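Supplementary notes for students who missed Thursday's class. We covered one full example, reproduced here. Read the sequence, then the structure, then the short commentary at the end.
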Amino acid sequence: MLKEERQRLIEELLKNNSVISNADILNLSNVTEMTIRRDLKEMEKKGLLIRIHGGAKSINTDVEATNPKKEFSHIRKRTINRPQKKHVAQLIAKEINEGDTVFLGSGTTIEMVYDYLTVPNIQVVTNSMLVFEKFKLDKRYETILIGGVYRDVSASFHGTISDQVAENFHVQKAFISANGILNNNIYDAVAEEGLTQKIIFENAKLKYLAVDSSKFDKKDFYQFYQTQDLDFILTDNEIPLETLEHYLNYCKIITK
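Structure (token representation):
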């Protein structure tokens, strides 16, 4: 990753989080910690951040306090619960068989699925630019991108055009993430995203919700689907037993 790209990444992280660690940046940039320190030193001289031990903080230290419900960007989300998200991505990959037609939704968990797929001859439909970028040049897969209005926070397409196109796809398996699950309700941060995901779920033969365990017992702005209408929830094995037993009343849950 070039220096300019790394420094844009650091700025993006600090827009949504008042403090970041060197480890946050390393996970996303694949460079040495010494390189990260040089970047932070240079950016501090430019007045873009304040260096602290092991990382940096925003010039505006009240970023989260002034806007506590602001949705994190997909760049920031990549740094959160990474081991759990990798586990869920592996579960998704195990559910996909050769010859399947699948929908892979947006989200930092689902964008990792490509890294764990081993079977060829899959038709992939997605509204995620990040998923599309991973699959587009791999000749083992036929990849279809649903366009529409681009939303930078989630790096995905939604809106009227997306919904009209999505109505025409009837996939065998749909894998969709969410910002929260509370009892029988599944939530997203934005109505437009939720509407597109609802259409895909309703047209899919098998409906999978793919979320890490931190999403349970949480709600967000827009309720777009019901847990009882899912076929499966895919989550990591750190979900508390009491929570697991509660949500098994609504649908099947796969953790391994």
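Commentary. The longest strand covers residues 122-126. The chain has two domains: 3-65, 77-254. If anything here is unclear, bring it to office hours.
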